[in-house]
Amino acid sequence: MALLGSSQIVGNSSSVKFPAGFPAWKRCGSKRNVGFRIFASETQSEPDLSVTVNGLNMPNPFVIGSGPPGTNYKVMKKAFDEGWGAVIAKTVSLDASKVINVTPRYARLRAEANGSGLGQIIGWQNIELISDRPLETMLQEFKQLKKEYPDRILIASIMEECNKASWEELIDRVEETGIDAIEINFSCPHGMPERKMGAAVGQDCELLGEVCEWINAKATVPVWAKMTPNITDITKPARVALESGCEGVAAINTIMSVMGINLKTLHPEPCVEGYSTPGGYSAKAVHPIALAKVMSIAQMMKSDFTDKDYSLSAIGGVETGGDAAEFILLGANTVQVCTGVMVHGYDLVGKLCAELKDFMRMHNFSSIEEFRGMSLQYFTTHMELVRMQKEAIQKKKAMKKGLASDKDWTGDGFVKESESMVSN
Ligand SMILES: Cc1cc2nc3c(=O)[nH]c(=O)nc-3n(C[C@H](O)[C@H](O)[C@H](O)COP(=O)(O)O)c2cc1C
């Protein structure tokens, strides 16, 4: 049984809640409260994982990211049954017949594999396109899911060519099914950019602004813009999306990659008829890169978009509750998981929730909002790090420094004074 820290020191049996980051000394505000220590189990109620994002209520912040885990009715139903906070379906477009996939379309990077193929998967490349299932089929399945799970959050991911009427038609059709929100895929790095879709729009701020305006003039549900990391400064398109009416930003989609070259055959992977094409990198290996992108977007949102209920959905390499906590500490409202589900299965959500609760208990956080964005304040420029370190070293030296000259000599504390003069 853990003793509580100073943040839980209370003077009676009811726990006093303080805002996150509230100095410990101020928490013992009245004399009555000082000196009482009580045990965690006496006061701690179960941490609350529920979140409300753009008016959407979710039992937890864990969202199935668009991709194979949201490819059809059966798997999305499984996701709801396992307890995922929300589900984002595989990206749909008006004409699925134009979407032609190849096989193989995945390649994996393993740790400690030594070529055995048995190591833990740390990186995943795909050259999969958006959904190749007929739109009508997907729409019927959305309708069915909303009928069976009216209180759960189903989000449609959509993508279209740069044509206003096409976007309007697609929005109309997905909204008719009763979905709760829309995520716009401005970020698929392969295949679709050749048709001026996906990352081709997300990398062109002018075009992005125009398309976002069409979308937001039409949509009646919250809209999240999913950003590509394959751009120099991800905050630029994220800002454009929010300025153009989107309620939220999601980041990141996959990182442009070439998984490797087979040293026996000399052909690249994944190998289709002897050839390959750069694809999208995901899984554990991308988590640090995703953290950096999410951190930049969160800083931008904090400085420029505080007036409205804008949201941030973080994505990239989440496999543990700790990975999710990191994103939330940077300011994310929700955390999406795609490859993690493909590697570990839908019941991963149970482990994610349990681990996130463990983290919250460790710090006595009772809700997600209590620690959301808390670590953002600890990022600064490298120049500032140098300045702070110089200041800290000077302070330490000053504390160690003894008497500078004979005139400071008093003779009191003879041993100390003489030693300090010798060490100067
Ligand atoms: C096989 C595969 C297919 C994907 N398909 C889509 C898609 O259709 N639409 C989309 O927005 N993102 C798609 N993604 C990207 C993921 O949603 C996610 O942004 C990315 O993989 C990083 O998260 P992760 O490390 O949790 O997978 C796909 C990812 C993978 C691995």
UniProtKB/TrEMBL annotation:
Q: What class of enzyme is it?
A: oxidoreductase
Provide the alphabetized UniProt keywords.
Oxidoreductase
Q: Which GO terms describe its molecular function?
A: dihydropyrimidine dehydrogenase (NADP+) activity; NADP binding; uracil binding
Q: Which residues form a coiled coil?
A: none
**One Pfam family name from the record?**
DHO_dh
Q: Does the keyword Oxidoreductase apply?
A: yes
Q: Which residues form the Dihydroorotate dehydrogenase catalytic domain?
A: 49-360
Q: Where is this region: Disordered?
A: 403-424
Q: Which GO terms describe its cellular component?
A: cytoplasm
Q: Which InterPro entries match?
A: Aldolase_TIM, Dihydroorotate_DH_cat
Write out the GO biological process terms: thymine catabolic process; uracil catabolic process
Name its pathway.
Amino-acid biosynthesis; beta-alanine biosynthesis
What Enzyme Commission number does this protein have? Answer: 1.3.1.2
| NCBIfam families in the cross-refs | PRK08318.1 (NF006183)
Q: What is this protein called?
A: dihydropyrimidine dehydrogenase (NADP(+))
